[in-house]
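notes to self, project folder thing:

trying the whole complex as one job this time. last attempt i did each chain seperately and stitching them together was a nightmare. two parts in total, labels are on each line so i dont mix them up again. if this works i'll redo the older ones the same way
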Amino acid sequence: MQATFDAYSLKPFTRALACLSRYGEELCIYASSETLSLFCTNSSKSAYCRFKFNKEFFSKYRVGDPSKGVQDGVVGQLMAKSLLSILKHKTVESTLERCEISIVEGVSAEEAADETQDGLESKLVVRLHCKHSVIKTHKLLLLGSTTLMAPGIPDSSNETLLRIGPRAIRDMIEQFSLPKGAKSDPQLIWTFGETDVEVRSLESSIDTRSRAQLATELTISADEFDLYNLYEAPTTITFHLREFNATITFAEICGLGLDIRFTDSAEPLFIDVEGDNFETLFVISTSQPPGSAAQARLASTGPRKRLREDTPTDSSRFKKPMKVVQSTTDRMSIARDTAPASNRLSSSRQMPPPATPVTPSPGHQHSSHHTLHAPQISASVAPKLSQELPLFLPGSSQLSILDEVALRESGLGIEHMSAEEFNDMFEAHGEEVNIEEVPPNPNSTAQTDRIGGGLEEDAMFTPTQTGDTLSNDEPRAFYPLFED
Amino acid sequence: MRFRAGVENVTTFFRIMQSVEKLQKKCIIKFTEENMHVICNNDANEGGIQVWSQIKIDSIFNNYRIQSNSNNEITVNLTCEALMGALRSVSTSSGTSNSASGSSYETDEVIIKLAKKNDQAVLNFEITGTTRVGRKVRIGHDVKIEVMKPADVVKLSEPMCPEPDIHVLLPSLQKIRTIVERLRSMSDVLAIRASQSGCLQLSINTESVKVDTEWKNCTIPQMMKERASQDDNADDPPPDPEHLFSVLVSVKSFLKFLSSHVVSTTTIACICQNHCLIL
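result (full assembly):
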């Protein structure tokens, strides 16, 4: 992969890196033929940030080597701070003429036995061409990641869409005197009503926390928002500010507006910021405001330590905060996520096909999106729907028991496919995927477990990870993308 | 026990709290009918610095209404940081273009009152303002406070100090602060000396270094002496104008005090020889 950009584009690029470094430590790069994506997830997997630069952003952009037939994008991981420190250096801004970024893969592609060649010795080479014919070359080691993170696609039917300028929202947040420090991670409770928006600091329960000395409440007219499409009033969401602030800072510096989308209090918040030839997506997890249930206490501690949970939850009434991203070893999900902007936008606004009674099927791990893939759906839709089949290749240890059963039941016969065949199935459709939204099963409530098509409230919860025993039973021709 | 007031001069209030916050985390505020006293008398204060201040309520509040069983006085214990947080969202940039310290909303009105939320006494700030575009915004802050019992209030009293030997008007605190900051890294103890001739000296003296800074022509205010000793004084020989009265203070504490330069217009230093410095 080779990309070149000039000094003018350096600024948004560096700002993007600065924002990414505030979200998480490790930055993933995915280069496809149309876009270059940089994304990262924070350590507690409660926030995700993705910057997608179209190839028009760069003065020169080339991915893969047509002669060798390498079509696929390049993936790698590196520390955000390293790249940031190179590009943010004080002399760079004034003297840079153009910057070339290229990814050099260490091991040759001919070694068929070792399919994980990308991971071994990839290097990211940053070549800065400065004034006075000075060329600075930096080489950073790119690590291959074993698991890539990608958020699920939000369900747009009951979504609230807000648009606001960064300055206005910065003003709102400034009113709150929040403790500053690496350890503190303040939360704010937002209540969106018909005409007013109310923001409260989480420590409003002054009596319970001895530490909290100040409680603040802000009420502002909804007119502050440029666009205020509330699905249902009133809606209350709570989320942490650290990543949100990074997003606002980015939007403010670039002078772009924020498009905020969310559905309800347990599902993540999506923020879109669009600029010249680049698009960004931020996903921040939300939790239920405390006080709604005694179990709500768990929610507020939840966001900080949300690891993949194996144990079933037993409270169906109480919504645990959603995981923002699901780990996936499938590049297709990344590809889909990073498909050129126009496609994604148009597809997400499409009317979903009419819902038909469906059997539970392996869906996305993002269980709020109840993808009810039914083989019974009309044939014309089926090939497209099959795109949305598992984020992960069949037979991976991430399938739960129910999912496995559903997979077999679906009759698609994919469980016996090898990785190559599976990929070929997609290959024919190329990257221009029409992603259609499937409406959720109206009977289901949001479940955090990965039960595909979560049905009645009393659905049985099984461990989300079946452990290795299941996968070991069936010999699979499944090659993980990156080996440990 | 009722207390309600409109805050007219938020900037001053904020600056006072800013100065106090540098000295001590928690402070005591006593509201009386005429004055607001800010008291920091924590003995554990490093260097033994205490604050006893008296502010006329007219300079900060308007529409002041107070009512209580103990002589219409209310004494509360609160965290400076919390109070500052509440005031910060009100105080406008006030001349500086640093908007980080001020709010970006034009404030119309600030009302402070004593309230109770969930069995907890709080000082409630109601702020109504307008945003940049002209829309109304309402902000509420609740500062957790602890109302002091009358028995404890009585115990609050200024420390006993002898009659100061000399009073001198300090030059601009800003300038003194610059000097003392340099001295801080060299010594822990600072000597402050003043003489009747209007000479003020700040000096440090350690094994390795000796620094003297002198200001000449400082004003010596004529203090009204109400004591009976006035008559005796008239008979005494006039004090030697060149004699320097000195006191040794901790540099750190002095610096902490100097940080309150944001509020000061004139500062009078009263030196009690080898005992204390009252500013």
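what i see at first glance: The radius of gyration of chain A is 23 Å.
need to look closer tmrw
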